[in-house]
């Protein structure tokens, strides 16, 4: 009976001093210690894991704006052969330079600049 009490007392002390078991990490160790257990600043039951720096932030840039197409204006058509310039004989000039003429305007076919 005396041995049964001592055995149950040892089992109870071991159960109180044991650590919880984690699924894939730390495990509980049960053993017999002769003397005092070694608890100190140099012994840690949980090992130190290496420090991994955090992931760099993800930078998302907006897409570039769509290309802009600029249409060029069509060149002005050359004056047709039916178009006339109007000449004022008293002013000796054509219509855009002289706005009024005291006599009738004389229609003239335009000459090429060559």
Structure report:
- With 114 residues, the chain is low in regular secondary structure.
- The protein has a domain at 82-114.
- It has one helix at 2-17, and strands at 85-88, 93-94, 106-108.
- It has a three-stranded antiparallel sheet with strand order 2-1-3, with no helix packed on it.
- Strand 1 (85-88) and strand 2 form a beta hairpin.
- The longest helix is centred in the N-terminal third of the chain and has 16 residues, at 2-17.
- The chain is rod-shaped.
- The model has no long low-confidence stretch (mean pLDDT 77).
Q: What class do helices, strands and sheet pairing give?
A: little secondary structure
Strand fraction equals 5-15%
Shape: rod-shaped
Rg calc: 54 Å
Low-confidence stretches: none
Strand order of the largest sheet: 2-1-3
Number of helices: 1
The span between the termini is 136 Å
Mean pLDDT: 77
In which range does the helix fraction lie? 10-25%
Largest sheet, in brief, is:
3 strands, antiparallel
- The assembly state of the depicted protein chains is single chain
Q: Please write the string of helix (H) and strand (E) elements.
A: HEEE
What is the total tally of β strands? 3
Concise structural overview:
It contains 1 helix and 3 strands. With about 110 residues, the protein is largely without helices or strands.
């Amino acid at each position: 009976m005396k041995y049964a009490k001592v055995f149950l007392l040892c089992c109870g002390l071991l159960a109180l001093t044991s650590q919880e078991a984690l699924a894939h990490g730390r495990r509980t160790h049960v053993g017999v210690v002769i003397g005092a257990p070694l608890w100190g600043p140099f012994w840690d039951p949980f090992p130190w894991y290496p420090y991994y720096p955090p992931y760099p932030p993800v930078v998302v840039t907006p897409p570039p704006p769509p290309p802009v197409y600029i249409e060029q204006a069509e060149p002005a058509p050359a004056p047709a052969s039916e178009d006339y310039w109007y000449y004022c004989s008293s002013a000796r000039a054509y219509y855009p330079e002289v706005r009024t003429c005291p006599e009738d305007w004389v229609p003239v076919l335009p000459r090429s600049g060559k």
